[in-house]
Amino acid sequence: MLSKARANIISRFIYLYRHEKMLKQEVFAAELGISRASLSLVEDGKRLPSLDLMLKLSDHSGVCVCSLLGRPCSHLHHVSFHEPVSQQEIVSAAEELLAIAGKRLIL
Ligand SMILES: [Zn+2]
Description:
Blueprint: H1 4-20, H2 25-32, H3 36-43, H4 51-61, H5 65-68, H6 87-106
This protein binds zinc ion.
């Protein structure tokens, strides 16, 4: 089971990424192939993201699944983080993921 803290990072990343792309929940959910209600639950941290959603999020953002999960990897852009213990660490990790997504958009 994905830890609550890691799930919180992914939730925060989805929120930041969606706003940076200026996508309404309805639009982003459609692009991910999920319902707006499902996206809302994950974004609000009320439901853990499914493995399928993790893959779709990775495809959409260009951030590898390993990085979304905070695991070291050999991909071009990656981030790894230890199990976050504070809200600040969760926010920082989510912002780092967003920075990777931004680089991918520029490349
Ligand atoms: Zn990776």
